[in-house]
Amino acid sequence: MNRTPITHTLGYPRVGERRELKRATEAYWHGKLSRAELEEAGRLLRRQNWLTQQEAGIDLIPSNDFSFYDQMLDLTCLVGNVPPRFGPPTGQVDLDTRFAIARGVRPEGGAAGACGCQPALATHASEMTKWFDTNYHYIVPELESGMEFHLGSRKPVEEFLEARALGLTTRPVLLGPVSLALLGKTHGTRWDRATIAQALVGVYRQLLIELAAAGADWVQMDEPCLGLDLPEEHRNLFGRIYEMLILPARSPKILLTTYFSDLGENLEFTLRLPVAGVHLDLVRGPGQFAQALALAPDNLLLSLGVVDGRNIWRSDLDRALEMIRMAAGRLGSERIQVAPSCSLLHIPVDLEAEHQLDPGFRTWLAFARQKLDETALLARAATEDSLEVEERLAENRAILGRRHRDRRACDPAVRGRTAAVRPEMFERCSPFPVRREKQTVLRLPILPTTTIGSFPQTAEVRRARAVCRSGKMARTEYEALLRAEVERTIRFQEEIGLDVLVHGEFERNDMVEYFGEQLRGFAFTGNGWVQSYGSRCVKPPLLFGDVSRTSPMTTAWAHYAQSLTELPVKGMLTGPVTLLEWSFVRDDLPKSEVAVQLALALRDEVADLEGAGMRIIQVDEPALREGLPLRRAEQAGYLRWSVDAFRLATSGANDETQIHTHMCYSEFADILDAVVRMDADVLSVEAARSQMELLDTFNQKQYPNDIGPGIYDIHSPRVPDAEEIAALLRKALTVLRPEQLWVNPDCGLKTRGWDEVRAALRNMVAATRRVREQVRVAGNAKPPRGH
User: Fold this and answer.
1) Helix, coil or strand: residue 643
2) How far apart are CA 80 and CA 152, in angstroms?
3) What is the pLDDT of residues 412-457, one digit of tens each?
4) CA–CA separation, 744 and 447 (whole Å)
5) Average model confidence (pLDDT) for the chain?
6) Rounded distance, CA 237 to CA 180, Å?
7) Rg of the chain, C-alpha, whole Å
8) What per-residue confidence (pLDDT) applies to 717?
9) Calpha distance 179→223 (Å, rounded)
């Protein structure tokens, strides 16, 4: 009888079912937990995750997939890569240093970590960007020419031994040296990627030897960059590095893992790398399966990623089982492993906590814990012909059939409206120069100041929302509290001298969930938390059906805020692509069609905001770059329909209405043509952590519309002083015209405290006034807008 294939996972959610990691980490940052207590909280979460996977029947359980902030940050510190502004590391890089790199250092400074780093006052954080096409953000490694790597941490060994003490032999997870070299950012003198990767080999070798000595049989080496279009020099680099890296007599076996994409032209050489096994994402890249079976060398193990690690819908087990049986027939069951497509980091922990969901709808879903059950069942079903297995497969077929027939997923009225969309609905009435002239009625100065939308959501606001939802506070009382918050925020913005105001978004729990709750076609979880970055977690809605709007969603609060002031207040919306990408979106309809449905709902909201007197409307699209397919062959089609969705949502606005959009933590160079085609009157982008580096991209393209590069980093607790902000503004003015430049933070202020926000925004306004006067004195500016 054939052996049941081995099961494994590539990683498990670390935040905890009820965000235990977030609570512990933030308590530590605020001095409410000791370092020992924080580390104990981490140990408890790791133990729970390991035992959960063991109980579900997973054979090879990962370790070192846990992080207090970010696994990329952990890895760069592991190889001794501490940015020079945090001081030269002289030994092990401790947790406080990692937090400082991720969050920056407050103006009052901070204690040195165990590595001997003495950070300067008000040290800015390292850059943060999206992890491929997910909503997870990683800290970008900073790679300086000639730096020498050393083993700055033994976290993988320590966590392997921690699991070993529980009786578990885990498989440590590492990001591979080539992907680390390709994903890092070099500063100053360019340091080629091959040299960086080669310099890393010694540290990786040392770590592999230590892991083998500790008893590790396997190490998971993630090389997600193999899913990208790679130049020949980078493809060749993988072969050279892995030939140097592997020491057969002293290293564990390597499972090289790829995910998020079909490997395409990288498949053949990947299968011939000197590793023991290769993992393929057969959910995102099913087309590579047959070729992989044909090309796999006789000594290579194939890991089949057949359970979707990126979405929450129940798997089609018959389809996955067909692949597994085909692979077992071709290679033998001893040469295959069964796994999710990628780490389960990107989905919520456990469906069992979701008692409020409709029971029938709930059967459509599978969170991380349920994905473990699917993985274990598929491995059994590959070789086991038992009544229990067949009953569970039959149950899966029945549930998928009921979901397919459910009338809640299809609304004929919505389908009719999308079919009636006409080409002229994607165009503003006039081109930007004409609109810009008409918008001078706003009477804004040069370098107008504004914020991105949200203001701090205090514990009082969050508590009132929870009490109101529980029925223990009257809706009228809750709304009175929110109106007081809005008025306080408007008065503060007037007091410090901002030019364009916002209402603060106190009524919103989340920029996606808030809208989903008011649209048909969405469902919601109570504990479906997913890590976005650091301690920041999001609870994505479940977009399961056709989308339509039942009534205005934002006009009442926008109108109230505008009634409090003579200054313009922005109406604030989340764009159609972001609503799509930041939800767990249905898998039975093309995303492009869902985007049109969302855009039409938002088009109605834009019209209602105009009717309520809003002269500026911001439609945020921070996820537009995130959704870009990893393969170039698929990117043009995506950019076409995603930009069309934004234009469909906004192009019904009058010329006099100024349309803003916001995008953050993305690489813009490869989508700038699409950003231009969005034709927003004002674009605000994250720029502070990179010290305005992305402006070179906009300068090369001669970006035609107005732009507000973020001039302070809201994801760090440090408050920049006025001169630092002024310096960034002057830098921006070397590539942008004064009449084109707006002044704003990087992102919304929801996660910051009021003390930080008050100080930072006062400094921002003071810096702007200083630079505005310098521009006027130099005679480089046009008269104030509207004069």
Assistant:
1) helix
2) 4
3) 999 999 999 999 999 999 999 999 999 999 999 999 999 999 999 9
4) 10
5) 92
6) 13
7) 26
8) 81
9) 5
Average of per-residue pLDDT across 658-683: 88
Structure tokens at 418: 């999308």
Q: Which amino acid is at 455?
A: F
Q: Stretch 256-277: mean pLDDT, rounded?
A: 97
> What whole-number distance in Å separates Cα of residue 762 and Cα of residue 213?
56
Burial call 206-217: b when 16+ CB within 10 Å, e when fewer = ebbeebbebebe
Q: Which of 8, 346, 503, 715 is catalytic?
A: 715
The structure tokens 């008025």 sit at 487
Q: What pLDDT, in 10s, does the model give residues 628-668?
A: 999 999 999 999 999 999 999 999 999 999 999 999 766 77
What's the token pair of residue 449? 């100041």
Q: Tell me the angle at which helices 591-611 and 632-650 cross, rounded to the nearest 10 degrees.
A: 20
Spatial distance between the Cα atoms of 771 and 777, rounded to a whole number of angstroms: 10
Q: Which token pair is 531?
A: 């890590």
> How far apart are alpha carbons 575 and 558 in whole angstroms?
17
SS3 call for 310? coil
SS3 state at 362: helix
**DSSP letter string, 159-205:** HHHHHHTTT---EEEEE-HHHHHHHSEEESS---HHHHHHHHHHHHH
Retrieve residue 671's tokens: 């989508």
Lookup: tokens for 408: 């809640």
Give whole-number Cα distances, 666 to 135, 537, 701, in Å: 11, 19, 17
Name the DSSP letter for residue 449. B
**Sheet order of strands, 616-620 included:** 570-574, 616-620, 658-663, 682-685, 706-709
**Which residues, including other chains, have CB under 8 Å from residue 303's CB and lie 6 or more apart?**
8, 255, 257, 277, 278, 279, 280, 336, 337, 338, 339
Nearest 5°: CA angle at 503, between 497 and 507?
Answer: 155
Q: How distant, in Å, are the alpha carbons of 506, 625, 719 from that of 664?
A: 21, 9, 19
User: For 4, which DSSP code?
Assistant: P
Tokens of 452: 């991105």
Closest CA to 716 of 753, 758, 771: 753
CA distance 627 to 786: 38
Distances (CA, A) of 75 to 1, 126, 155, 619: 42, 14, 9, 36
Angle of helix 459-469 versus helix 475-496 axis, rounded to 10 = 160
Angle at 162 between CA 156 and CA 166, to 5 degrees: 140
Residue 129 burial (CB count, 10 A): 22
| Catalytic residue check, 715 | yes
* C-beta of residue 383 within 8 angstroms of C-beta of residue 3: yes
Beta strands 542-549 and 584-585, pairing class:
parallel
Q: Residue 132: what residue type?
A: F
The whole-angstrom separation of Cα 494 and Cα 568 is 11
Looking up tokens 């921006």 gives 732
Which residues fall within 8 angstroms of residue 450, CB to CB, at 6 or more apart? 498, 499, 500, 501, 502, 570, 708, 742, 743, 744
Q: Residue type at 270?
A: T
